[in-house]
Amino acid sequence: QVQPVESGGGLVQAGDSLRLSCAADGRTFGSYAMAWFRQAPGKERGFVAAISGSGRRADYADSVKGRFTISRDNAKNTVYLQMNNLQPEDTAVYYCAARFTYISDKLYLTNAEYDYWGQGTQVTVSS
After folding, report:
1. Backbone angles phi, psi at 92, to 5 degrees
2. Which residues of the chain are modeled with pLDDT < 70?
3. What gap in Å lies between CA 50 and CA 110, rounded to an integer?
4. Scanning 33, 96, 117, 127, which has its CA 20 to 30 A from the CA of 81?
5. Is 80 in contact with 72 (CB distance < 8 Å)?
6. Closest C-alpha to 121, from 8, 4, 3, 2
């Protein structure tokens, strides 16, 4: 069992960059697939990016491909979301999610596949 804790959100201008971090306790962090989701006001929580437990595979929502990069450091029990060229439509609460997996290179892309969620961190992008 892990408890993700997000950090790194804030208020930025369009075109700026931010890096979100998600720290998770637990001795077997590498056995957890991780992902970032986001929820804008009045909208459902949606997929942003996912990374396998091994870190060898990743996938992204079409809206962030080429701008966002997900990565992880299993030695530090941390997953990151580097967000470049932020736009007002990226404004949302960003959530980190984790799920245990025996398959080190498998990706999980939907809310329902994740068991552990952080409290979220607000990202606001002004135009």
Report:
1. 180, 170
2. none
3. 9
4. 127
5. yes
6. 8
| Cα 91 to Cα 53: distance, rounded to the nearest angstrom | 27
DSSP class of 40: -
Tokens of 101: 């997996």
Chain centroid to Cα 118, Å, comes to 10
Give the residue from 68, 50, 51, 55 showing the smallest Cα distance to 123. Answer: 68
Environment class of 68 (CB within 10 Å of its CB; exposed 0-12, middle 13-18, buried 19+): buried
Residue 121 near residue 94, CB atoms below 8 Å: yes
Task: Give the C-alpha separation, 30 to 67, whole Å.
Answer: 25
Which residues are 123's β-sheet partners? Answer: 10, 92
Q: Which residue has the tokens 């091994």?
A: 54
CA 109 vs CA 2, 25, 68, 102, 113: distances in Å = 19, 22, 16, 16, 7
pLDDT digits (tens, 9 = 90+) for 22-33: 999 877 999 999
pLDDT of 84 reads: 98
DSSP letter, residue 104: T
